[in-house]
């Protein structure tokens, strides 16, 4: 798997966090995330694709319409560092952060860890 393929996988994963229906979210996560993935950020840590689905749904309930755009990325040795901006439902900058991702041999994410300042309204 090359760097462009890893970026494509990351973009598919990131799209799953956007304002889409559950069926589409599941389809995107099946393409991009291993069944036993681990996700962590400053306010949560979940294990497995189903738990990640629930975490994303919670995020959309709390921040309707929120979505991401990559600002830059670095990839090597089956892992990547992704700098991103999160926009609210009105398209305004909401949060800037970075995420670390680790990929398996099939090219899916087995780990995704986000680093950012906790936005207003989060515990």
Automatic annotation (TrEMBL):
> Any idea where the SnoaL-like domain is?
30-111
Q: What is the lineage of its organism?
A: Bacteria, Pseudomonadati, Pseudomonadota, Alphaproteobacteria, Hyphomicrobiales
Give the source species.
Bradyrhizobium rifense
* Protein name per the record: Nuclear transport factor 2 family protein
Return the Gene3D superfamilies for the record: 3.10.450.50
Pfam families named in the record: SnoaL_2
């Amino acid at each position: 798997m090359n760097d462009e393929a890893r970026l494509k996988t990351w973009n598919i994963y990131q799209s799953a966090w956007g304002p889409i229906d559950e069926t589409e979210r599941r389809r995107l996560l099946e393409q991009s995330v291993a069944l036993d993935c681990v996700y962590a950020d400053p306010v949560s840590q979940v294990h497995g694709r189903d738990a990640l689905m629930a975490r994303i749904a919670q995020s959309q309930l709390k921040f309707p319409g929120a979505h991401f755009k990559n600002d830059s990325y670095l990839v090597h040795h089956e892992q990547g560092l992704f700098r991103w901006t999160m926009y609210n439902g009105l398209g305004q900058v909401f949060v800037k952060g970075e995420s670390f991702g680790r990929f398996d041999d099939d090219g899916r994410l087995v780990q995704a860890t986000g680093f950012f300042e906790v936005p207003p309204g989060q515990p």
